[in-house]
Specification:
This protein has helices at residues 2-20, 56-67, 77-82, 126-131, 252-258; strands at residues 88-102, 105-112, 115-123, 136-147, 153-167, 173-174, 191-200, 203-204, 210-211, 213-215, 227-233, 236-242, 265-271, 281-287. By secondary structure, it is of the alpha+beta class. The relative contact order is 0.12.
């Protein structure tokens, strides 16, 4: 704020001096606007990678030159977990699913045998994004970050990457027994399963009838938006999400959730995303 006020005073003085000098027709250029604070899905993108840079290695080189990010010593997941926020980290991991690509940045779900990482706003050309099929091994360097800062998703942001030899597809880890416990965050970002849960009412329709899901968290959305639904285990109710950027309208899981009925028993798999508590991004739902 202080920087903005000082800039306005300097601009005002410049305009006053110009008027005194008789250059009343000249105008000062407006200060560059400050971008809005980024969100988990819609964010201010990193600077675009030049069109001629198509290989993953070229993407990484450009990013190092522009942002100062470089590959360091590869960490284990334990070392990553112990690292401070806002510090540079380097890991080797494997693509499990892709959430989105926009203006040469990608957000993807990845996992290695010892832990999982959500990679957010990674410099990536569209051609390289197409190469990131499930199982692809990549080396990633970026900042360890958390959003929101309190009880939020732990991720690697503003990242660069390069493709390496190797392949790994994670099997879901059953975390049903850890629901509501302090152990559950230890599985953040992993591909997990929840089994034997009962569908609960997510809200009510205009007629006052219970409904099994909502479009958007408060029911204000429409077909194509995120789906929110609730399920219980041992008397405790939890909220689950079908993230439309990952699995949107027309996908099997999106249509399966739209067909849920209150009281139904289901099994689920998905990625253990975190937002002020667990916010699993569900990728499959089946009747138990």
């Amino acid at each position: 704020m202080k920087k903005k006020i000082a800039a306005m005073l300097v601009m005002t003085m410049a305009l006053s001096l110009a008027a005194c000098g008789g250059n009343s027709g000249s105008t000062a250029a407006p200060a560059e606007s400050t971008p809005a604070e980024s969100t988990a899905v819609e964010s201010t993108p990193a600077e675009s990678v030049p069109a001629e840079s198509t290989a993953a290695e070229s993407t990484a080189e450009e990013s190092q030159e522009e942002g100062g990010i470089a590959f360091g010593d590869v960490m284990t997941y334990e070392e990553f977990a112990a690292a401070d926020f806002d510090t540079l980290v380097t890991v080797e991991t494997y693509v499990q699913a892709k959430q989105s690509w926009w203006e040469n940045t990608a957000s993807i779900y990845t996992q290695a045998e010892d832990g999982a990482y959500f990679i957010y706003s990674m410099s990536c050309s569209e051609e390289d994004y197409d190469k990131l099929v499930p199982g692809t091994k990549i080396k990633v360097a970026g900042y360890k970050s958390q959003w929101p800062e309190q009880d939020g998703e732990i991720e690697i942001s503003e990242a660069i990457f390069e493709i390496e030899d190797g392949e790994y597809i994670a099997e879901p880890t059953d975390v049903t027994e850890f629901l509501g416990t302090d152990e559950l965050p230890d599985y953040m970002n992993r591909y997990v399963s929840f089994n034997g849960l009962t569908v609960e009412a997510a809200g009510q329709d205009d007629a006052g009838n219970d409904v099994a899901f909502l479009y958007s968290w408060d029911g204000s959305g429409s077909d194509g938006d995120d789906l929110y639904f609730k399920a219980s285990k041992d008397g405790e109710i939890y909220t689950f999400t079908v993230e439309s950027y990952l699995t949107g309208a027309g996908t099997d899981v999106y249509e399966a959730v739209k067909a849920l009925e209150v009281g139904q028993t289901i099994d689920m798999t998905g990625f253990l995303y975190w937002y002020e508590g667990m916010n699993p991004h569900i990728t499959s739902v089946t009747a138990a």
